[in-house]
Every structure is written in structure tokens, then in C-alpha cells.
Design a protein that fits this description.
The chain is mostly beta strands. The chain has strands at about 5-10, 25-30, 35-40, 45-50, 55-60, 80-85, 90-95, 100-105, 110-115, 135-140, 145-150, 155-160, 170, 195-200, 205-210, 215-220, 225-230, 250-255, 260-265, 270-275, 280-285, 305-310, 315-320, 325-330.
């Protein structure tokens, strides 16, 4: 990958649907092969077709939290942060400020709430997700086994919602703002500021901690935690070396490459970085300084949040403060 291969997918002049310049966060490729992204400034989820035409998927453009049972495009949402599709084509997204997780049904385009009451807090484990309280949830991920995992940031927990029963539980974290204990069992182990979640092919969870400035792997079989990247200190260093010795700066997005590489949006260093199978970290885009340039050899990003790897291997980037959606390709 090279920084000289950054191209714009969507920005302010892409569509008159943008009441204000878009602020892309989460991004994903849908089952139709099109790009979908969360726009926190316009309070909507959009898709971009192969001709660059932008259309609304969810959100009326007015902030709020309503519309269950109605068309998703007519519902009010507030700052959607992350989105994912299941194998049936249903779209799941986090509405962070509203403290809920919602779903848009593929069958008829209607919207429903799956988790959260809309009131910030921590409650409801062992009961229905719709009766539970979340606190500024950010990322979500499906495990392919009927569960939706929620990075419940301000509760310092990862919650798991059973999509068949509707029951929610805490999967990781204790609510304590303490360092994660590497090598120890998952139950009773703190996760400080869980922000981003992804699943590897073997079922292990890759978890990014914003406040912890680190990446961990939660082993599915042994239920233990391994250190993947970040010293815990906030910074931007370590390229070409063991990722565990590198400094990260508030990582807020994770995606898995086609060969198992871990791609992270290292938001506060204004970079997108890669951890290869050997555990070595490098920078794919950005230079550690906030900026706005796509010029070959000196491209700059500004607080990127979302990353997603396309089937081609290209990386989609929500370059949030530059208010544009980018593609990084070979």
C-alpha cells in the first residue's frame, strides 16, 4: 500500500443531501457491493453507488431517536458511529449519543431498536436488550454465530446481544478504569475505554482500547487476553518494529485485512496503521500530523475514525475532520 493511492469517494460536493459537509465515521461494504457510511454531522447513514451517487439509507437528517417500525429514512437518529451487515442483508448501527443499537431490516427497510433504552447508564444484563442501558456505545461486530458485540465505551465493557433471544450480557470488562491484565482470564479483567471490535477467522476478538491506547486479542477457546499493540502511552512511534512496543493514540477503528493483517484507525495520531501477521506495525496513510492533503508522498489525515477492507484489499477510511470518505488502494 502507498499513501499516493488515496482517492475520494464522498465529500461535501458529492451530494446535495449533505446539509452540512459530511463527517464520515463508520464505513462498510454492503452485500450489494456498495459503500455505506455513517455521517455524524448530518445524522444519517448514506450509501454510495458505483457512479458516486449518494443516497439515504437511514435518518431523516434531524437529530433524535424515534421511528421504530417505520421506514428507516424517515426515522430520527443522532450521530450514528458504526455499522455492519449480517448475512441476510440487515443493517446494524450504533447511535452513540442516543445510547442505542438499531437495525434496518433488509426485507422492508423499516427500523427497530435492539439494545438500549435511550437513557445513558449501565443496567439490564441477563434481560432484554431493549430494556438495558448503554453508555456511549461506539463500535459493533457480528460474530457469525448469532451474537452482536457492542463496545460500550463509558461503561468500560463489551456487551454481547443474542440476536435470537434478545438477551444482553457483559462479555468483557468490569466497569473499572484500570489496565487490562495480559495473560489472565477474561472474566474479571478490566477493559479501559473499549472502542473498536473485530473478529478473526478462528473466532478470536481483536479489541481496541481508546483510553488504553492499545490493541488486545481475546482468545475464544481459552478466554484469555493477549497483548497485540500499544504500550499504553499515547503517542505515535514504533513503525517497523514490534507493535507491542509502539505508541498508539486513541485507536477508534479496527478492520481485518485479507491476509489477517490488523488495520487500525489511530485517530489522534491522524494515521491508519497496519499490524502484520508477524506483529510488526507500519503506517499506511498519514504522517502523525493533522492535515488535509492527498498529494503523493505527503498525504495527511485528520482524526480518522472508520476503516474497512474491501474485497479487493483496498482500505476505506472515514477521514472525519477532513469531512471526506477515502479509498486507499494498491
Amino acid at each position: 500500500m502507498s499513501q499516493s493511492r488515496l482517492s475520494v469517494i464522498a465529500e461535501a460536493n458529492s451530494s446535495d443531501l449533505f446539509a452540512v459537509p459530511p463527517e464520515p465515521f463508520g464505513v462498510v461494504v454492503g452485500p450489494d457491493g456498495l459503500v455505506y457510511f455513517c455521517d455524524v454531522s448530518n445524522h444519517r447513514i448514506f450509501k454510495v453507488d458505483t457512479f458516486g451517487v449518494v443516497s439515504v439509507v437511514a435518518g431523516s437528517g434531524e437529530p433524535g431517536n424515534d421511528g421504530d417500525g417505520l421506514a428507516a429514512a424517515a426515522a430520527r437518529v443522532t450521530q450514528p458511529y458504526e455499522l455492519r451487515f449480517d448475512s441476510a442483508g440487515n443493517l446494524y448501527f450504533v447511535d452513540m449519543i442516543a445510547h442505542v443499537v438499531r437495525r434496518v431490516l433488509a426485507a422492508d427497510g423499516t427500523i427497530e431498536t435492539l439494545a438500549g433504552t435511550g437513557i445513558e447508564g449501565f443496567a439490564g444484563d441477563g434481560g432484554a436488550g431493549t430494556s438495558a442501558q448503554l453508555a456511549r456505545p461506539h463500535s459493533i461486530e457480528l460474530d457469525g454465530r448469532g451474537r452482536l458485540f457492542i463496545a460500550d465505551i463509558a461503561n468500560h465493557r463489551v456487551r454481547a446481544l443474542d440476536l435470537n433471544s434478545g438477551v444482553i450480557e457483559t462479555f468483557a470488562g468490569t466497569g473499572e478504569q484500570l489496565p487490562t491484565r495480559v495473560g489472565e482470564a477474561l472474566p474479571g479483567n478490566p477493559v479501559y475505554g473499549p472502542r473498536a471490535v473485530a473478529f478473526e477467522a478462528n473466532g478470536d476478538m481483536v479489541l481496541g482500547l481508546r483510553e488504553g491506547n492499545a490493541i488486545y486479542r481475546l482468545a475464544a477457546l481459552t478466554q484469555t487476553i493477549a497483548h497485540v499493540a500499544g504500550t499504553g502511552n499515547m503517542g505515535y512511534s514504533g513503525d517497523g518494529e514490534d507493535a507491542r512496543l509502539a505508541e498508539l493514540a486513541g485507536p477508534k477503528g479496527i478492520a481485518l485485512g485479507l491476509n489477517g493483517d490488523i488495520i487500525i484507525a489511530d485517530t489522534e495520531s491522524h494515521t491508519v496503521r497496519r499490524i502484520d501477521a508477524g506483529g510488526v506495525i507500519t503506517t499506511l496513510a498519514g504522517n502523525g500530523e493533522k492535515g488535509d492533503s492527498l498529494d503523493p508522498g505527503k498525504a495527511c489525515l485528520a482524526r480518522p475514525h472508520g476503516v474497512f477492507v474491501e474485497p479487493s484489499g483496498a482500505v476505506l477510511i472515514g477521514d472525519s475532520d477532513n469531512r471526506r470518505l477515502l479509498r486507499l488502494s494498491d
